[in-house]
Structure formats: structure tokens, C-alpha cells
Design a protein that fits this description.
23% strand; 6-stranded mixed beta sheet; 4-stranded antiparallel beta sheet; 41% helix; alpha/beta
């Protein structure tokens, strides 16, 4: 059984059908890049995987467990928040909190996660308050390790406005890693960057690939997709038009739509 199985995923916005039965599989440790022209459902696919949008139909299974559809109100709903944390998302526009330092942007999600877990366990407010100092010290230590991994240990006290676009995106990657997701998703991670800053972000993603991270990357960086991916998905008109190894997709595309896409990209 594949680590991730997506079957017949559909999503409409009003009368516009964006995903029209998307199905694919990937193994643990694989890197899958999703390419295609804008407006063909790539970002919507990632948002459905991350529960930022709710698919209309289909199933998502991770490591043998169905995480979508979620249990109905009449069924057991514990661990739903854990299922949503199966995926981590890195957005194209960073989505950092401008009022917080780089360090706080990374620790915030961990702090909230633990607070919510305490509430679900029935721990009273005054007990939680006693536990917070130790929690925050632990989370700051982990956040510093992550900022060091992305080369930003010297920027921990800087606010987003004091960081370059590439540095902000690396903070966003550290934030996504903080919750230890099983699958890390990138939505056009370099599209908001100047060309000279793109390399530093791609270098971090390559390092994560070398560490064996399972990743799905929506990108327009064709050469990067070729070099970093185990599998390429080409999407057109809300469906997976073609899927295969980088060599198959880039060197020997079978679909006329895939061929036309590469012809325009040249």
C-alpha cells in the first residue's frame, strides 16, 4: 500500500469545477512535483490535502488511515486535529505574522497545538498556566534548531519586514517543519521571490529531499522539478493529464496537452 493515496478528489467553487476526479499515489520519502499552467487546480489540490478547503468527494489515505472524509457527527471524532496535521503547508506568499519575530512565528503553532491538546485532555486553566513556561522553553529550543537548519539562526529576533523574501520563506519552511508533518507541501515556494533569492529556498528544499522528507511541490521551476523529483504530475483542466518520472514527462511526454505546455515554456 502506498504511503499517500488520493482517489477521485473533486472540488467545485460555485458552478466552477476545479478538481475533476484527481487520483494519485506516492511512497514515503518520495518527492512529487505538480506542474501545469495556472488555473488548472494545482493549488486547490494542495489546499484540499491540508484541509484549507474541503473536497466535495473523494478519499485521502495516509499510511493506511483514511483522513478524508472526516468522521460524521455520529461517529468518533477524536484525533481530527491530528489528522489535519498530517500535512504541512508552505505558502507562496509566506503568510508570516508581521507582529512576531522569526522565532515567535515558528514557535506559535507549537504553542497553540499543545494548548489545544491540554484543553482536550481536560487540564484546567490554572494548571495550563503553570505548564506554559516549560512548554515555551522547549518549543523555543526546537524552533532555534529549525531556524539553524534553514540558515537563519542569526535572524531569530528579526521581524518579517526586516527579512528578505527568501529569508521569510525559509522561516515559513521552519514553521511548517515545527509540527512534524508526515507530508510537506509547497505551493509555488519561489514565485514571490526575486530570481537571485530563489536559489536559497530551493537549496533548503533539496536538503529536505536528501533527508528523506515526503514532499509535494507545486512549482513553475521546471529544471528544479526535474532535478529534485521522483515523480512529476502534469495537471490540465482539473485532472491529472500525465504522470511519470521526470525523464518520462520532460523527455518523452505522451499527452498533446503536456507537449503544448512545454512548447509554450521554451
Amino acid at each position: 500500500m502506498a504511503f499517500l493515496e488520493v482517489k477521485d478528489l473533486y472540488k467545485k467553487f460555485g458552478d466552477t469545477e476545479v478538481l475533476k476526479g484527481v487520483s494519485f499515489e506516492m511512497e514515503k520519502g518520495e518527492v512529487v512535483s505538480v506542474i501545469g499552467s495556472s488555473g488548472n487546480g494545482k493549488t486547490t489540490l494542495l489546499r484540499c490535502l491540508n484541509f484549507l478547503e474541503t473536497a466535495d468527494n473523494g478519499t485521502i489515505t495516509v499510511d493506511g488511515e483514511v483522513i478524508f472524509p472526516l468522521p460524521t457527527s455520529g461517529e468518533k471524532r477524536e484525533n481530527i486535529s491530528d489528522k489535519k496535521l498530517t500535512f504541512g503547508m508552505v505558502f507562496q506568499n509566506f503568510n508570516l505574522f508581521p507582529q512576531y519575530s522569526a522565532l515567535k512565528n515558528v514557535t506559535l503553532a507549537m504553542d497553540v497545538q499543545e494548548e489545544n491538546a491540554w484543553k482536550e485532555q481536560g487540564i484546567k486553566f490554572f494548571e495550563r498556566r503553570k505548564m506554559r513556561k516549560e512548554m515555551r522553553c522547549k518549543n523555543e529550543e526546537k524552533a532555534m534548531e529549525l531556524l539553524t537548519r534553514v540558515g537563519l539562526e542569526n535572524k531569530k529576533d528579526n521581524y518579517p519586514c526586516e527579512l528578505s523574501g527568501g529569508q521569510q520563506q525559509r522561516v515559513a519552511i521552519a514553521r511548517a517543519l515545527a509540527l512534524s508533518p508526515d507530508i510537506l507541501c509547497f505551493d509555488e515556494p519561489t514565485s514571490a521571490l526575486d530570481p537571485e533569492l530563489t536559489g536559497e529556498v530551493l537549496k533548503v528544499i533539496k536538503t529536505l529531499r536528501d533527508e528523506g522528507r515526503t514532499m509535494i511541490i507545486v512549482t513553475h521551476e521546471m529544471e528544479f522539478a526535474r532535478n529534485v523529483s521522483d515523480k512529476i504530475i502534469f495537471m490540465a483542466d482539473g485532472v491529472i493529464e500525465e504522470m511519470g518520472t521526470p525523464a518520462q514527462i520532460f523527455d518523452e511526454p505522451q499527452s498533446d496537452k503536456t507537449k503544448a505546455f512545454f512548447a509554450k515554456a521554451e
